[in-house]
Design goal:
Length: 226
Amino acid sequence: MKVFVRNKLFLIFFVFLFFGASPLKALYPMTRNLLITGCARSGTGYISQVLTRAGLDIRHEQIGKDGTSAWVMVAPSEKTPWGPGRKNIRFIHIFHQVRDPLKTISSVFSTEPPASWQYIMEYVPQILPEDSKTVKAAKYWYYWNLKAAELAEWTYRIEDIREVWGEMQYRLGKNLDMSVLDHVSKKANTRGNHMRDFTWEDLRKELEPNLYRNIRALARSYGYIN
């Protein structure tokens, strides 16, 4: 019996055999179809509204019947400053949503509160307390997107939502009414004017060269730079 207690796999198998419980349920008390994640300020609020109007219960930073759209779920946490964490939830599909890096960095720089930064820095040790606000926002965009891409089965640009709609339907095995895109404002969940609107030249001047090159390379891989 001690062998079973020491080995989680044997314990789960034991539960499965004798109680008829699924091993996946033992690991993940909750299963949902879809998680859409990525950086904060990358349109997760917008896409939750779009998919809800299309007939799916995808809630922003809360768990709906079909899933959730939440940047905080890139991290494997149990709790977050903005709703539940990903720990103990099994998602059948995980999509990584990206948005123009300059717009995202500008918005993160201008609007994310201290609670977000405390959470982010728990999972991105590359962000240092002494880093400038610009460096923190830039590092966050880079490292958080790398984590999201590693977690996800598919990466798409929110700016291309009409072009990738068919792919999204195919992956989910659902027919989704694309006309909802005409009825949801692209300004959904915006937070007003930015304190700064960064250009690539701004970032080149304010970031360490290797970080700047890495961000440019990642932006290019997403199709934001020719």
